[in-house]
């Protein structure tokens, strides 16, 4: 039965939450373990659905995965991997986008891979053309079928000279996970350089890979014939940290995020300070709070790292509905990442969407028909509403809007949020929110 979350809004969120390993790194490091000839050990693993999905996928390919939820320690033993039944793989169709990253490791291990239809958040088309293009360049043969993709490497995988049309995180990971055991040298231009990519490189380097990152977004990988295991502690989830920081701002609260690290949040923290949020840092985490003064509007553009990340945009838009004046947000990474604003508008926010690039830099969506710029006028009084969660980050932004709003909100689709936020119901309850859960 589906769960219904009922929120009585209007209480500031106050207290402490604990953030563990990054959703956008941990499942990928689990995939990396497949490349090893020895077991790996991963620390700081959160209890999120993407970790469950990758655990299941690894298990059906013969990897022994042991995990202690409380300590966050996971061991992965890939010494007896085999090709899984297509029907077993297919049960994961539509669950997540991570399965596409199994292509390289499974081809190295078993000579072939079958990838089910992908899932993930509905925030645009989310094509996989870059992934398939780079794999073909390594020598893979791609056979698209109705149920998924069969991919094989009859002549083995060979290093290649590659360039991405856009610095895609997933496609960069695809190249790394394929090139490390490919024959010869791979050079990838216009690669993503997100902190999660650097953490994945650290893992692969521990396993024996030879990877050089240049300052111009070029990554060079010298293929090796064998990789061992790794022992690694994931970087903390900077997107979850930014979400709680915005929640403190929106609800006029004060939240200490244990486990948070300042380093990979530079662009977020600059914006947080400009809008009027306060933060402080200690050895164990970071504290975020509303300074008491009216929030200030601003002009914001999402970008690839080191810019303001697209996953920080949605909770920040909720904060901007409370700022005193007109703000502009230009989304340049995904063409369709403002769908969540419809619910905010129903709650009383004033948000207009535009097809034009309303930022300083025209982006690749500019001359096309996508509502990818938002004009937000504040401050707006938010009132409770019935909400069906559309995607992970948009869904979290709905939650914090409902927590700040006057009156009752009934929220469905909350399972989507557990894809990326562990124990989020317990966390908001622990911060003093007035909530209840029922089945419907
Ligand atoms: N793109 C293509 N073709 C491809 C791949 C990507 O056109 O083959 C486009 C996408 O449509 C998008 C842009 O390139 O417009 C960037 O996509 P990217 O490949 O960088 O995204 P991703 O790897 O699919 C990861 C995160 C996202 C995060 C983005 C950007 C994971 C599992 N997901 O997605 O996280 O927004 O990078 O940093 O790591 C989230 O956490 O809620 C989330 C969506």
From TrEMBL:
Q: Which GO terms describe its molecular function?
A: UDP-N-acetylglucosamine 1-carboxyvinyltransferase activity
Pfam families (alphabetical): EPSP_synthase (PF00275)
| Record SUPFAM superfamilies | EPT/RTPC-like
| Keywords, ordered alphabetically | Cell cycle, Cell division, Cell shape, Cell wall biogenesis/degradation, Cytoplasm, Peptidoglycan synthesis, Pyruvate, Transferase
Locate the active site: 121
Q: Please list the reactions this protein catalyses.
A: phosphoenolpyruvate + UDP-N-acetyl-alpha-D-glucosamine = UDP-N-acetyl-3-O-(1-carboxyvinyl)-alpha-D-glucosamine + phosphate
Tell me, which GO biological process terms does this entry list? cell division; cell wall organization; peptidoglycan biosynthetic process; regulation of cell shape; UDP-N-acetylgalactosamine biosynthetic process
List the InterPro entries hit by this protein, alphabetically.
Answer: Enolpyruvate_Tfrase_dom, Enolpyruvate_Tfrase_sf, MurA_subfamily, RNA3'P_cycl/enolpyr_Trfase_a/b, UDP_GlcNAc_COvinyl_MurA
Give me the residues that bind phosphoenolpyruvate, please. Answer: 23-24
Cytoplasm as a keyword of this entry, yes or no, is yes
Keyword Chaperone assigned: no
Say which family it is in: Belongs to the EPSP synthase family. MurA subfamily.
Name-wise, this protein is UDP-N-acetylglucosamine 1-carboxyvinyltransferase
Q: Which organism is it from?
A: Nesterenkonia natronophila
The encoding gene is murA
